[in-house]
Amino acid sequence: MIISVASGKGGTGKTTIATSLALSRGEVQFLDCDVEEPNAHIFLKPHTNERISVGIPVPELDESKCNFCGKCGEVCEFNAIVVIKKKVLFFPELCHGCGGCSYICPDKAIKEVDRAIGVIEKARSGKIDFIHGILNVGEPMATPLIKQVKRHINNRTNAIIDASPGTSCPVVEAVKGSDFCLLVTEPTPFGLHDLKLSVDMLRRLTIPCGVVINCADIGDDKVTKYCENEDIPILMTIAWNRRIAEAYSRGVPLIDALPDFQNGFSQLYGTIERLAER
Ligand code: SF4
Ligand code: SF4
Asked: Alpha-carbon distance 28 to 21, whole Å?
């Protein structure tokens, strides 16, 4: 089973929930797919045992073979390669490494070379098999790195994916293929607005979801009413607690700082299993 943990809005406690869910389960794979800002390792403190460089294949032009026909520019959906008069211009930061230009080139003037975009670290934290992707600073291509992180999913065990906040391409890539997605939100107008976007995204991907409301005793009841109206189960509510905030700031997982939550997270995992099977 693959459970993804996502949130439409940043700062709702997504990683706090994801890491405590993993710790309550014990033997599980944890994949931090928030590759632009991975921080689950701060809480799980894994010991790295493998580092893998990740790149995408980008075109390299041999101008002596080029007839400037412009076919490479026509096939590129991302305007990463443009042919103007007798010049082929390439914008590496726009290139998605799809291979279309080298495939279409009639004169074999384009070969593919690897451009590094980040690294994957495989590690161990107690019983947790930990994997995260770290995108190079300033690198815009998060999605190919997330794809590579997810290639390490072991189908013989359960996996928890920590997605980045929002509903953009990296989030879609991270949650795609999940059996269930846990959405972490807070009872505020921003929380509700972004929750609606996340629910819409998951419905398009036909991924069942449930909600955790963090800081549930502040704000209003509109998130609760929305979930009731939309038939989305609220699987856990967590009241604001200074000790949770302090533990977070020290990099201590919620269930280690407040062991009373252990049962709640174990039950949450069991409920997700049942809902995913359904
Ligand atoms: S498709 Fe090949 S030959 Fe045509 S412009 Fe592009 S690189 Fe040159
Ligand atoms: S590899 Fe794909 S995205 Fe990159 S320049 Fe070629 S066609 Fe465009």
From this structure: 10
